[in-house]
Amino acid sequence: MLIQNSSSTTPVARLLEGSRVYLRPINVEDTELYYNTLFHQEVRRLTGTQRSFTKEQIARYIEGKGQDSSGLLLLIALQEDDRVIGDIALQDMDSLNRSANIRIAINEQGNQGKGYGTEALVLMLDYGFGICNLHRIELNVFDFNEKATRCYEKVGFKREGVQRDALFYNHQYHDSILMSMLQHEYRDRYVKQAES
């Protein structure tokens, strides 16, 4: 579970802000926080995480993300108390085809189903389409993650297909559902609506 000490006197850098959550850069100082998330059983199941990691590997991963121009990894924090509740990433950005993949994790069940993930997704989609000038953003969700699937559909993602038996987890195979949103679909739903 990701929990941040809110007693810090240093202001928190906020890249993207919504009404209830904000997205902030991840730093090497967040290694312990991020590491502990990777061993939360429900997070591992929902994300299909199969491997184990050391803190040193996580620190190198975070450092590498800061140098990676093809992606953006941010932590999701609550406006009310700066508590980190998950992470979100735009990854595999392809400037020629103007496409990317998005992933999100809200780590504690008590923070799921409250609209935090929806708000974080819309913030990151706005960044991807409005700042990075992406045309297409896709994601994959496992067939057993019905809450996430409903969230993605609510945000405006459309189902494109199914990758059959894409994940082997807990003694069985699971399908992966491919979903996407195009730039004009995002603008019609969020930008034009805000302008009117």
At a glance:
With 196 residues, the protein is of the alpha+beta class. An eight-stranded mixed β-sheet has the order 1-2-3-4-5-6-8-7, sandwiched between helices.
The order of strands across the largest sheet is 1-2-3-4-5-6-8-7
Query: What number is the mean pLDDT?
Result: 91
Helix content: 25-40%
Main sheet: strands, sense, barrel = 8 strands, mixed
Spans of at least 5 consecutive residues whose pLDDT stays below 50 are 1-7
Number of helices: 6
The dominant shape is: globular
Which percent range describes the beta-strand content? Answer: 25-35%
Can you describe this structure?
The protein is of the alpha+beta class and 196 residues long. It is 33% helix and 32% strand. The chain is built from six helices and eight strands, in the order ββαααβββαβαββα. The radius of gyration is 17 Å and the shape is globular.
List the helices and strands and how they pair.
Layout: E1 16-17, E2 21-25, H1 31-37, H2 41-47, H3 55-67, E3 72-78, E4 84-94, E5 99-106, H4 116-130, E6 136-142, H5 146-155, E7 158-169, E8 172-182, H6 183-195
Parallel strand pairs: 5-6
Antiparallel strand pairs: 1-2, 2-3, 3-4, 4-5, 6-8, 7-8
Feature tags:
alpha+beta; eight-stranded mixed β-sheet; 6 helices
